[in-house]
Amino acid sequence: MRLPDGPQLPRWLQLIKWIADPFGYLNQCRQRYGDTFTLRLSGFEPLVFLSHPQAIQAIFTASPSQFDSGRGNGLIQPLLGDNSLVLLDGNRHRQQRKLLLPPFHGERMYSYCQLICELTEEVASRWVVDKPFVARNAMQEITLRVIMGAVFGLREGERYQQLKPMLGQMLDMTGSPLRSSMLFFKFIQQDLGAWSPWGKMLRRKQKINELLQAEIEERRKQDKSNGNDILTLMISVRDENGEPMTDQELKDQLMTLLFAGHETTATALSWALYWIHQLPDVRKKLLQELDGLGNKPDPMTISKLPYLSAICQETLRIYPVAPVTSPRIAKSPIEIMGRQYDTNTILFPCIYLTHHREELYQQASQFKPERFIERQYSAYEYLPFGGGNRLCIGYALAMLEMKLVLATILSRYQLALVDDKPVKPTRRGVTLAPANGIPMVLKGQRLLQSQPQQPLVGSA
Predict the structure, then answer these.
(1) Nearest-CA neighbor of 416 among 268, 291, 215, 280?
(2) Which distant-in-sequence residues (6+ apart) come within 8 Å of 71 by Cβ?
(3) Strands across the sheet with 346-349, in order?
(4) By CB neighbour count within 10 A (0-12 exposed, 13-18 middle, 19+ buried), where does 395 fall?
(5) What are the C-alpha distances in Å from 433 to residues 17, 80, 204, 246, 438?
(6) 90: in domain
(7) How far apart are CA 455 and CA 12, in angstroms?
(8) 434 with 136: CB under 8 angstroms?
(9) Which residue of 89, 90, 147, 336 pairs with 70 in a disulfide if CB–CB is 3.0 to 4.6 A?
(10) CATH of the domain at 390
(11) Residue 457 lies in a domain
């Protein structure tokens, strides 16, 4: 069967374009080939990109047995490990997802609210008036500390002090388009010793795994009823056969939560701060909404603020952290919008192009939170966290964290962008982040110094 049309450039050149400027390349392809097109990247099977909501609905609502996804995510296997949820398919994926889901929903999730607000205040309180700082670095500091607190219950101690910088260093190894190349080019993935990029990454991962193993062994000896963190819950869960997760499964899932659970949220928060301070009307409306909260609003109140919610949604629409969802690899022939696809065709629902459809999002290149107040979008029109059985397991916690961090900062601090030049997204591993990290500067506090500095959120 003939695949949809796509660029006829050499495969190596298509891969370079995909690494260097994915949003720009996707725009060019959609303009020339329409809603569905095929990219042929060096080292990969042909990839069919789809962005029509009807096509995305057909994929997201299909039986999970119709597709594999995990085997299409091999790019990040070296970072996360073979047992990572994003690399599993079939019954193993369903089983592990079921075991991991409870900590990210309901009452358990809201137990992290106080932690989020306290850690945000700890980081923000170190900012110095008129001294510039990089918003993305500050947001990554907050989200890394939040995920370590939520996952491990760790906020201090020797193991915390070792793990925290190592995770940051490992992420920074793919922190630019050039450094990201080692995930895409297999020939770079050679362990030539501790001095080589790949060798350095493998050794860092090994050290992180050793620290995770020590933490797991320590937790297994402790009273499991005492912990409210995710690791304690993961150790205590049992599958339908009464079996616990193995140490290797625990380590790989912990790596997945640590990476996916803070890197993406830090990027989204950086963009939100950029748009809020780039657009005076947006900032003014948000501050009016926050000022109506009173002294100690509860997290449920903050999470339901309409304009704050709309800002977070629009942030994830205009520059989604990931340009595509998990791939879907057809396990049998399938028809989508009248086109037949053979077994083993790799289908990529494209988040970015769906979010920039003019018939859905008028003036799609403009940041307009009001669109999410005026209209409710379906799960096939707005999909920053993917969808179907591969919907991001931590999406609710990520949205809650975005809202609480923004509310904590903006209620107390007056910030400004260092300059008002437009900022473009750039590749950071398999995600995209603001190219300059968003330099900002503290101009002062919003609360009078004589007023008591109460926590924004009461004890959850």
Answers:
(1) 280
(2) 87, 89, 329
(3) 36-39, 47-50, 346-349, 328-330, 67-68
(4) middle
(5) 17, 20, 23, 34, 10
(6) yes
(7) 53
(8) yes
(9) 89
(10) 1.10.630.10
(11) no
Q: How many CB atoms lie within 10 A of CB 297?
A: 18
Q: Are 406 and 427 in contact (CB under 8 A)?
A: no
Going by C-beta distance under 8 Å and a sequence separation of 6 or more, which residues neighbour residue 35? 50, 51, 52, 55, 353
- CA distances from residue 147 to 302, 401, 410 in whole angstroms, order as listed: 20, 10, 22
Task: List the structure tokens of 275.
Answer: 């748009």
Say how many domains are in the chain. 1
β-partners of residue 39 are 47
Cα–Cα distance for residue pair 239/225, rounded to 1 Å:
19
| Distance from C-alpha of 124 to C-alpha of 18, rounded to nearest angstrom | 36
In this structure, what token pair is assigned to residue 120? 């945000």
- The one-letter code for the residue type at 446 is R
**Is position 4 within any domain?**
no
Q: Can you list the positions of beta strands (E) in 58-161?
A: 67-68, 132-134
Q: Write out the two tokens for 410.
A: 């903006």
The pairing of beta strand 47-50 with beta strand 346-349: parallel
Domain assignment present for 3: no
Domain that includes residue 172, residue range = 11-445
pLDDT in tens, the chain (460 residues): 789 999 999 999 999 999 999 999 999 999 999 999 999 999 899 999 999 999 999 999 999 899 999 988 887 788 788 888 999 999 989 988 888 887 787 777 778 888 899 999 999 999 999 999 999 999 999 998 898 888 877 777 777 788 878 877 776 665 555 555 656 666 666 767 777 777 888 888 888 888 888 888 888 887 665 667 888 888 888 878 888 888 898 889 888 888 777 889 999 999 999 999 999 999 999 999 999 887 777 888 898 999 999 999 999 999 999 999 999 999 999 999 999 999 999 999 999 999 999 999 999 999 999 999 999 999 999 999 999 999 999 899 999 999 999 999 999 999 999 998 999 999 887 788 999 999 999 999 886 333 444 555 543 3
Q: Quick one: 75 exposed, middle or buried, by C-beta within 10 A (0-12, 13-18, 19+)?
A: middle
Rg (C-alpha) for the chain, rounded Å, is 22
Q: Which strand (E) or helix (H) includes residue 240? A: none
Task: For CA atoms 265, 385, 426, 278, give the dihedral sign.
Answer: negative
d(CA 368, CA 365): 9
Amino acid residing at 58: A
User: What is the C-alpha separation between 424 and 3, in angstroms, rounded?
Assistant: 32
